[in-house]
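From the shared-data thread, chain only:
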Amino acid sequence: MAKGELRAKARRQAEDLKATFGQQNRWRSSDLLGGYIKSEAMKSVRKSPRIRDTTRERYVLCLSIASEALGKYPIADALRAGTFGKALSSIAQKHGTATARQVRKVVNKWVIQPLILSGVLASNPIAGLSFDLPEYKASNKPDGGKGLTESEWKRVLAWLLSDDWRSILDEDTPVRGKYSRLQLANVRRAIVEMTALQAVTGLRIGEARALTWDEVGRDCSTVEVTDDASKTHRGRIVPVLDPRVVSMLLRRREACGGCGLVFPSPAAGDPWREWDKSNCSKAVRTLYGQMAEECDIELLNSVRSHVWRSTLHTIARNRGVPIEMRAALFGHDPETARRYYTDTQDISGVAKAFIDQ
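Structure, as tokens:
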């Protein structure tokens, strides 16, 4: 290797040391591995200037998978060869062998090496070991399991919240069809704001259409999905995970007096008239096509509102929210949540995980 290449490699290693190992020596081998991964390893990955965004998201995903499998063990126990090997086998079965191998590499660099340098571990307990992992291919997710990356999710949400639905009321804006200018503005506002709410709560389209103001918290920071409205007949309280959408709901409630459905039929003028399913679906199809083009996200041409459930599941998992809490938030049992939605419990931890980032 030439001297110039050696110097470049040394500089890269120095940058990695700064990003990865500049941690206070406040951890003990008896502390839970999940706490260390969330507080130190994920933070280091997110702050590293040398990782591309797509790679960063993959590393965070690997760390969240490792935390899910080993997070409840003390650091020393979790990284013992036997425990770690069993966890990798389980990961291979659930996520594919290729993912399990990548989890090992990510844990080695972003967890084990920093623990050694900070004095928590005396040596690498899995160095030189070869784990005989079962061969599994990652299963193809159904359409409902496809989600956006976190950066795509933020981009779409910003676009939705910047939509100027009032422009339709401008007399210079041409309108066509049987609906009045005001009715068209109401339709646009309703579909944009309903989609924004779904994007930060994971509500199903039927749950959003059936939502009443009585089921929205006083400060609009939570919404309630009743047993009757839920597809799985499991009622739940859901946090609104973005303060901008909270403000949007407050303005909407003030405008309509807080009576009836949150998103009634836009053209009917009746607060208790439910939005026709077919008409709502047409508005959804049009909006998602616009989102796909404006935000440059091809996936939005082929998915609909379930994309938010998958997206939020994955973001919550990547931010260390336990599977049980995620399942309670979205109205599913943990296994269903794990299999199909990840790419009366306290839900405050979910909201905190999103707001703190």
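The chain has 15 helices and two strands.
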